[in-house]
Amino acid sequence: MTSGPTVEAAQGDGAGVARGAGDAEIPKPLFSRPAGKILVIWLIFTAIGIVLALVVPKHTFPPMLTKEGDTGVTTVIFFTIMAAPVAALVYGIAAYSLLAWRQRGQRDEPPEDGPPLRGNAPVTIVWLCVTSLLCIVLLVWGLAAMAADNQAPPGALRVDVTGQQWLWTFSYPGTGVSSRSLVLPLNRPVQFDVTSNDVTHGFWSMSLGVQVDANPDVVTTIYATPNKLGKFTVQCSQLCGLYHSFMYAPGAVVRPGAFALWLYANGASLRAASLDAKVKMTRADTATGQVTAAVGATPAGS
Ligand SMILES: [Cu+2]
User: Fold this and answer.
1) How many angstroms is it from 272 CA to the middle of ligand 1?
2) For the chain, which residues make up each domain, given as ranges?
3) Distance from the CA of 294 to the center of ligand 1, in angstroms?
4) What spacing in Å lies between the alpha carbon of 211 and ligand 1's midpoint?
5) What's the predicted TM-score (pTM) here?
6) Mean pLDDT across 86-108
7) Do β-strands 182-185 and 248-254 pair in parallel, antiparallel, or remain unpaired?
8) Ligand 1: distance of its center to the CA of 260 in Å?
9) How far is the CA of 197 from the centre of ligand 1 (A)?
10) Cβ density class 113-123: b for 16+ within 10 Å, e for less
11) Taking a C-beta distance cutoff of 8 angstroms, is the pair 201, 238 a contact?
């Protein structure tokens, strides 16, 4: 019973404002039909977002050395492109509102508000459908990429990764090699078995496209397949104590022959080094020592 008069009173006030809009005291909206201008701003902002999505990752990310790293960059670019029109609409309306509907000049009274929005079914339906579709596409993309990255590849090289305050140790089972550097052969899948000796660390290499927690008493497995030669860095991604920021290790993707030489130079037998690198290496091949020098790798404890 009480709501009827209140609504009428509110509508009466609204009508009063509308009639008063022609009065000299109340400013008219600068643009009576802003949709076209917002559309133009939206298109420009969308184009800027897409250009940024295509340019920024290439100039800010380190070179990706694995299939998984490539997938990560593609995912960032794709997600940003999909998000660009939505962000552009929000920022476009905000920018237009700030410029077109700002208060001009000195005034004692604040300007009257525009007529209230009571709902717009077509806009609501389009907004819900478009955003739902975008979310579904991104979800499917993300799940597919994650599933592909988490599949155990056949013939993977196993590397045991151990974090501790505040360094990394990389062991190559079956070879007796344990190193402070992570050296990987080109074009061979790698299975990282990651754990920690003390607190929670994070095994993270952006160039390898891997990041997983290193938890004490738990072995977490992650895979990567190096597909380019190059150097990279392994860092700790969990704030793990006083010298967390110094907890990084050098790494390199090298040719299989160079990998075999590196294993041998770091203590593996000729047979184990050849087997693990899947190459045929003779004792004469081991005389060069060039791999250790090129990588700058040192065995653990040296
Ligand atoms: Cu750490």
Assistant:
1) 31
2) 31-103+120-151, 157-295
3) 27
4) 12
5) 0.73
6) 84
7) parallel
8) 29
9) 11
10) eeeeeeeeeee
11) yes
Question: Token pair for residue 91?
Answer: 């920022």
CA dist 117 → 35, 71, 100, 123 (Å): 15, 44, 18, 12
Question: For residue range 132-176, what is the model confidence (pLDDT) as tens digits?
Answer: 999 999 899 989 988 887 778 888 899 999 999 999 999 999 888
Phi, psi of 196 (to 5 degrees): -135, 150
Residue among 7, 22, 163, 141 nearest 80 (CA): 141
Which is more confidently placed, 12 or 42?
Answer: 42
Asked if residue 166 has a cis previous peptide bond (ω within 30° of 0), the answer is yes
Give the DSSP H/E element, type plus range, for residue 224.
Answer: strand 220-224
b/e sequence 195-229, b meaning 16+ C-beta within 10 Å: bbeebebbbbbbbbbbeebbbeeeeeebbbbbbee
Q: Is it the case that residue 273 has pLDDT exceeding 70?
A: yes
Give the lowest-confidence range in 106-120, 161-175, 264-278, 279-293.
Answer: 279-293
User: Which amino acid belongs to residue 9?
Assistant: A
| Mean pLDDT computed over 102-123 | 77
pLDDT band, very low/low/confident/very high, at 256 (cuts 50, 70, 90): confident
CATH 3.40.50.360 for the 157-295 domain, yes or no? no
How many Å lie between the centroid of ligand 1 and the Cα of residue 262? 26
* Ligand 1 geometric centre to CA of 244 (Å): 5
Residue 289: the pLDDT is: 53
In the chain, % helix, strand, coil (3-state, to 5) comes to 45, 20, 35
